[in-house]
Amino acid sequence: MSLCTRSVFFLSLFCVCAVFVNDESNPVAEKALDVALNYVRRTGSTGIQFDSFQRVISNTSDARTLLEALCDKYDTALKTEKPPDLVLDFTQTGVSSETVKSFTHALALPTVSASYGQEDDLRQWRFLSDEQLKYLVQISPPADMIPEVIRSIVLAWNISNAGILFDDSFVMDHKYKSLLQNVPTRHLIAAVEDVRNIKRQLTRLRELDIVNFFVLGRLATLKNVLDAANANKYFGRKFAWFAITQDKGQLKCSASNATILFLKPEPDPASRERLEKLRTDFSLTAEPEIASAFYFDLTLRSLMALKQMMDKGQWNKQPYVSCEEYEEDKPVSRTGVDLRKALREVAEPASYAPMSLADHNGHSYMEASMRLEKVTVMNGQSVSAEVEGSWKLGLESQLSVKDASSIANLTAASVYRIVTVVQKPFVMEKRDKNGGVSYEGYCIDLLEEIRKIIVFDYEIYVAPDNKFGNMDEKGQWDGMIKELMEKRADIGLGSLAVMAERENVIDFTVPYYDLVGISILMKKPETPTSLFKFLTVLETEVWLCILAAYFFTSFLMWVFDRWSPYSYQNNREKYKDDEEKREFNLKECLWFCMTSLTPQGGGEAPKNLSGRLVAATWWLFGFIIIASYTANLAAFLTVSRLDTPVESLDDLSKQYKIQYAPFNGSPAMTYFQRMADIETRFYEIWKDMSLNDSLSEVERAKLAVWDYPVGDKYTKMWQAMQDAKMPKDLEDAVARVRKSESSSDGFAYLGDATDIRYLSLTNCDLQMVGEEFSRKPYAIAVQQGSPLKDQFNNAILQLLNKRKLEKLKERWWSQNPEIKKCDKQDDQQDGISIQNIGGVFIVIFVGIGLACVTLAFEYYWYKYKRNPRVTDLAGSMGGPRGGRPHLAVIGRPDELGAKMDAAKLDAAALGQAFNYRRNGNQLPGVNQAWQH
Fold first, then answer.
1. Dihedral sign computed on CA atoms, order 105, 110, 113, 117
2. What is the pLDDT of residue 85?
3. Which residues does UniProt assign to the signal peptide (predicted)?
C-alpha cells in the first residue's frame, strides 16, 4: 500500500485529495490546470506530490444532473477513504457555478472558485459567515474584471450613452445590472450577432441614439464589428469606438478612416521572463494568454497554500458527511481552516501579474494592466498605434492617461439634432455676409446655458412647415412633434406649449417659461393731431361768420359815432374836460372790437348811446362765442381718446364691426375649434335631457329655466372666424390688422401672447388688448423615453435657482434692440399734447413777427418818406416883395417837445409859430433852430 492511502496527492508525508470542476465551454482553464499539474510534477521545489486527480466537467444546464455527478464522485471518495481536501471550482457562471457552490457550501468543503461575479452575484455564497469565508474563496478571472474599464471610461469622460457588445470570450450576464449601476448613462449590453446581422444590429443601436460603442471580444470579433461600422459610416466626430480584448496582437479592420481606442492586456514587467519560460518549457500557450496564466497561477497557488497549511499543522481534519447523510436542518460546519490567509502567504512568483486577495468574495482578482492605444486606420491599414495610457484591473480603478484632453477629443461628441420654429424673440435667423444662417434668441441663449452644464454639440434646423405641431382628425401630427416622433430630431426647442395630447407622443422637460396664453392684437387707435387743432373746434363757416360780424360791427360803430350828434367827435366842446377822450374813427373801431374779445377789454366805450348799444351787443356776442369755444375745445381734445371699443374677448365676441380670427393651423385655432365643439356637445346633452319624453311633469319642470343653460359664445366666435377667413400665417394676420381703417372697424388677430407682445413692442401701430386666456407653460420637448429629459430637467432647475432665466427674459424683452420707443399715446390722465395746441405758439410768433415788420415799416416811413422842410417861399415880413410871409420847415427837425407831434403841424400851428417869432417870443417846446 502506498504511503498516501487516503489521498490522490502526496504533499511531503501528507496525502491530499482534490476535485476539479469546470465548464465544457472553458477549455482554457482545463489546459492551464494540466500545465500546472505538469509543473508540480516536474518541479521538485514545490514539495507537492500527487497520485491521482478527480475531474467533473459540466456540459449541461441541468442542475440535478451535475449535482448527481458531484455526489457520485464525492461519495466514492468517502467510501475509499479519500475525501477531498480541496475543490477547484473553475465553472464560470449560471447553473453549473451555483450548483457547485451549493454543494461545497452545504458540505463545508474548502473551495477555491474562479467564477464570474461579485459578492451579490454568487447567490449560493451570498450570506457566508466569517468562518465560512475563510475556506470558501472566490477570485474573479480577468475576463470578469476587464469589462470594468467601461465604467472607468464612462465616468472619466462623462459619456451619456453606451452600446456594449461582447462575444463568448466574455461573460456579461451579471454585468447587466452592475456594470454602470448608479451612473447616469443610458446603455445597452448585447451579445454580438453573427457576421451577417452585425450591420443590422449596429443600425438598431444607432436608432436608439447610441453613438459610443464598446466592443469586447476576440480580435476577429473586433474586426467584424468595425468592418460593419465602416459599411454603415459610423466613424467620425459623432461616434466613438472602444475595442477591448483579452488577446495579444494588433487591431485590424478595413475602415477607410477611423480612430479607435484599443485596450489589451499586457503582463507585469517582473513576470515577463517567467511567463516566457512557462510558454516554452511547459507549453502554457492556450489563448487568451492572460486567462491561461491566471488559471495556472490560481491552481499552483491553491496547491501551495494547502501544502503550507499541512506543513504547519493548520489543516484540521474533520469528519465528512456524505450526500446521502446530509440533512438540511443540520448544517455541516468546518472550523480552523483559513485557506484565504494561506493563499495570501504563498510566495510563489506570479506568471502574469500579482494576485489581490480581499476579505470578501467578489473583490479578489489578478492585478493585470490594460494598455490603452490610439489606433488610426486609413484605407484598411493601421497607420499608427500610439500608447496613450493604461488601466489596472479592478472595480474602482482609474484610467491613467498621458494627455486627458487629447483622449477626450476621441470620444463621441454628443451631437443632438434640434428642430425649432422661427419665432421672435425666442428663435431668430441671422445671416452673415456669405449668406450663412445662424440662430439667436431667448431659446438659443437658454440652450447655451444648458450646454455649460451638459456638454454636448447640436445641429439646429427649422421644422419643414415651421409649425409647432398639431394633430389632425386621423391622429397624424405635423411640425416639430412629427420630427420628434419619427426620430429625425432629438430635441424640440422653441416656445412650445405643454399640451396633454402632445405629452402622449413626446416628453417635456420642466417648464422654462411662465404661463403664456392667447391674446388679441389690434391696430392702435390713431388720435389725429394738428398744430392748429384749436381752429378745428369751429367749422369754417362759423369762423367766416365771426369774421364778418367783426368787420360789420366795427364798421357800424364807426358810422354811428360819425353821424351821432352825441358822439365825441361831434361834441368836442362838451367833452373837453373829460380825462378820457376817444375819437372812434374806423381804425379805432376795428381795434375796439378786437380787444373787446380779450380779458383786458376794449377800453373807453363810445359816448353816444347808439354806439354803446352796438358795443354791448358785441360784448354779449363775444362772451357767448368765447365760452362756447372754450367748452368745445376741451371736449374736442378729449372725445378722441375715449374710443376704446374692445378691451377683452367678451367685447370682441359681442360686436360685429371688427372681424377676428387666428391664423390657420395655429394652437389658438385649435383652442376655439375645440371650445365650440364642446359647447355643441353640451347643447346636445342638454337637449336630449330636456326633451326626454320619459320625464314626468315634475322632472320636466325642474329643467325649465328662464336663462338658456348652455352658452354659445365660442360657437358664434368660431363661426365668425370662419366667415372672416383665417389668415394663412402670422405675417398675413399682421398685414390684415394693419389694413384696418381704425381700432373700431377692421381686423383683430387672436394668437400666442408672446407673438402679440413682441409685435406690440416692435411696432408703434399695433397694440395688445385684453388679458391672456388658455394659459400654458413653455418647455423643451424630447423624444418619448429619452434620457435627455432628466438631464435637461436638472440643468433647467439649476438655471432657475441661479436666476439665469430671469436675466434671459430681461435681455430679450426689456433690452431687445428691436424694441421701438413709440410716442406716448394720449390718455385721459394726460394733458393736452403739444401736437394739438402747438399752433397757438405759432400764432404768437407770427404776431410778433408781424409786429417787428410793422415797426420796421413805421421807422422807415417816418424817417425817409415823411421828412419835413421849412423854406421861405415869399421872403420875410417887409421883404422886397412886401407880401405876406410864407414859411416852410427847412432842414431836419431836432427833437421836438414831448407834447409836440410833427405829423400834426398844420397851417394854423405854423401861423402861430410865425406870430410868436415876429413878436420876439419863443415858441414853448421848440428849440431855437426850429424857430428860425
1. positive
2. 85
3. 1-18
Strands 491-493 and 781-783: antiparallel
Which of these, 491, 493, 494, 469, lies nearest to 480 by C-alpha position? 469
Tell me the torsion sign for CA atoms 513, 519, 522, 527. Answer: negative
- For 109-125, what is the mean pLDDT? 90
- Peptide bond connecting 565 to the previous residue in cis, omega within 30 degrees of 0: no
| Strand, coil or helix: 225 | helix
Q: At what angle do helices 586-595 and 540-563 cross, to 10 degrees?
A: 130
| Structure confidence by residue, pLDDT tens digits, 898-917 | 334 444 444 444 455 545 44
User: How many Å from the N-terminal Cα to the C-terminal Cα in the chain?
Assistant: 187
Centroid of chain to Cα 906: 98
* 230, pLDDT greater than 60: yes
Angle at 484 between CA 480 and CA 488, to 5 degrees: 105
Helix (H) or strand (E) run with residue 728 in it:
none
Burial 803-838 (b: 16+ CB within 10 A, else e): ebbeebeeebeeebeeeeeeeeebeeeeeebeebbb
> Order of strands across the sheet with 14-16?
14-16, 9-11, 48-50
Tell whether the model's pLDDT for residue 558 goes beyond 70: yes
User: Has residue 931 got a pLDDT over 50?
Assistant: no
Cα–Cα distance, 439 to 445 (Å, whole number)? 10
Query: DSSP 3-state assignment of 591?
Result: helix
Tell me the pLDDT band of 60, cut-offs 50, 70 and 90: low
Cα atoms found within 13 Å of the Cα of residue 841, Cβ hemisphere only: 8
Identify which of 407, 581, 510, 524 has the alpha carbon closest to the alpha carbon of residue 795: 510
**Quick one: which of 68, 77, 93 has its CA closest to 19?**
77
514 and 497 in contact (C-beta within 8 Å)? no
- For residue 606, the tally of other CB atoms under 10 A from its CB is 25
For β-strands 212-216 and 161-166, DSSP reports them as parallel
Q: Who has greater pLDDT, 714 or 6?
A: 714
Does 752 belong to an annotated binding site? Answer: yes
The span from the CA of 914 to the CA of 877, in Å, is 10
| CA dihedral over 810, 811, 812, 815, signed as positive or negative | positive
The tens digit of pLDDT for each residue in 145-170 reads: 999 999 999 988 888 889 999 999 99
Rounded to whole angstroms, the Cα distance separating 840 from 532 reads: 7
CA distance 926 to 902: 11
Q: Cα separation of 133 and 362, whole Å?
A: 12
Q: How far apart are CA 648 and CA 645, in angstroms?
A: 10
DSSP codes, 896-925 = PPTT--GGG--HHHHHHHHHHHHTTPPPTT
CA 151 to chain centre: 31
Q: Are 85 and 315 in contact (CB under 8 A)?
A: yes
Our CA angle for 879, 885, 887, nearest 5°, is 120
Ramachandran sector of residue 732 (left: φ over 0; alpha: ψ -120 to 50; beta: rest): alpha
Taking the CB of residue 460, how many other CB atoms lie within 10 A of it?
A: 19
Tell me the CA distances in angstroms from 231 to 252, 679, 850, one per residue in order. 15, 58, 95
Which grid cell sits at 66?
A: 451535475
3-class SS of residue 928: helix
Per the structure block, which three cell numbers stand in for 282?
511547459
The closest alpha carbon to 734, from 762, 771, 709, 703, belongs to 762
The 10s digit of each residue's pLDDT in 467-494 is: 888 888 888 898 899 999 988 888 999 9
Give 400's strand partners: 390
Does 582 count as an annotated binding residue? Answer: no
Average pLDDT over residues 920-932: 45
What is the model's pLDDT at position 597? 80
C-alpha cell at 63: 442542475
Residue 148's φ and ψ, nearest 5 degrees, are -65, -15
**470, 475, 479, 480 alpha-carbon torsion, rounded to 10°:** 100
